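Reminder to self: tokens first, then the designed residues, so the page reads top to bottom the way the pipeline ran.
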């Protein structure tokens, strides 16, 4: 799935000053809810929390990819957040997180969920891409970098 289809500029935030994993998940819920008719902020938050209970989505190197499946979601939606100060996310490498890409998908479409997660993980495995994302100075720059063509991770 093309990131342009699921990540909109209004779901992208640069230099956010949240201080905990819970606050970040609440922010994600707030950003995503208007994009999904019939899905509440509480439903989104609970889906993200349930996934975190299974194990942290902090994948290491300062990156987290919280994700969840939603019963009433009609389409996938993503958010991208950079944090002004890294936050403990119970990551596999015990390092705090400053780059958060969240994905919410319809419950009945696990294939899209897995393919999109795989594509995002590959993108965030690119050190140059992560460096560009972390140095973005605005929401618009952050969005432009993330949706740029693979191997060209920079803003226009």
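Designed residues (156 positions):
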């Amino acid at each position: 799935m093309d990131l342009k289809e699921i990540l909109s500029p209004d779901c992208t935030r640069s230099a956010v000053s949240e201080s905990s994993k819970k606050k970040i998940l609440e922010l994600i819920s707030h950003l995503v809810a208007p994009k999904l008719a019939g899905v509440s902020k509480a439903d989104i938050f609970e889906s993200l929390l349930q996934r975190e209970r299974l194990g942290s989505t902090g994948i290491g190197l300062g990156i987290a990819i919280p994700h969840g499946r939603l019963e009433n979601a009609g389409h996938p939606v993503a958010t991208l957040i950079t944090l002004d100060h890294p936050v403990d996310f119970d990551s596999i490498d015990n390092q705090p997180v400053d780059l958060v890409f969240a994905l919410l998908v319809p419950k009945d479409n696990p294939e899209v969920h897995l393919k999109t997660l795989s594509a995002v993980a590959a993108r965030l495995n690119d050190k140059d891409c992560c460096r560009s994302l972390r140095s973005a100075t605005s929401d618009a720059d952050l969005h432009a970098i993330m949706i740029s063509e693979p191997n060209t991770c920079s803003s226009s």
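The first helix runs from residue 3 to 6.
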